[in-house]
Amino acid sequence: MTFSRIRTSRTTKRTIQRAARGPGRLLPLCVTLLFSATVSGSEIDISVLDRNGKGVADVAVYAVRTVGNEKLPTPVSNPVMDQVDRRFVPHLLVVQTGAAVEFPNSDSVAHHVYSFSHPNKFMLPMYKGELHPPVTFDHSGVVSLGCNIHDHMLGYILVVDSSVFTKTDKNGRATLSVDDPEAYTVNIWSPRIRDKAESLSRSLDSSRDPVTFSLGKKLNPPHHGPTDGNSWPDYQ
Ligand SMILES: [Cu+2]
Prior knowledge:
alpha+beta, Immunoglobulin-like, five-stranded mixed beta sheet, four-stranded antiparallel beta sheet, 2 helices, binds copper (II) ion
């Protein structure tokens, strides 16, 4: 989805550079530009930095259309929130509204997964393996996950009204591809971020300039790389 668009766009850039070297290659350039405008969209580079200027990993980054209507595509596959070593994996999963999320239990012990996050409440009574069907999340928002058996287990699903989303890499960087940047805001979210919500959203403009979110408040848990493996005690 997002990643395949990124790969396409990078390939497109290289093709443009090659095509621009000589007038005899004008036709490939025209074809490429047409392809670029209709398929790959504009890449927007995003950075999330903590208050010391260090990149923050595993932050959800997503673009929301604010001008005109956007009909979200039907999710093509079910995202997976696994349970491994008595942890939710990944710690934070980003999905599009309407996505059906699989909750396999890869542990040898049973889990009893639940969320009290209104209006996406659900419960998967004691199970191992893939006993329960996927859970569909029809409302945007944060879904906090817990386990009735293992109190330390904590995970998050961020449900977004967008098909353009990803998470920051270990350096706090991400790239989104949108077809009309002026019509979008780019937003970030992580359970570790304590800054006010209004500072976590930015309108895009036609410049395609990189967008940097510089956080002002201390992260909780503090900076220690990727979040997978985090649990309740890490947040105390
Ligand atoms: Cu459990």
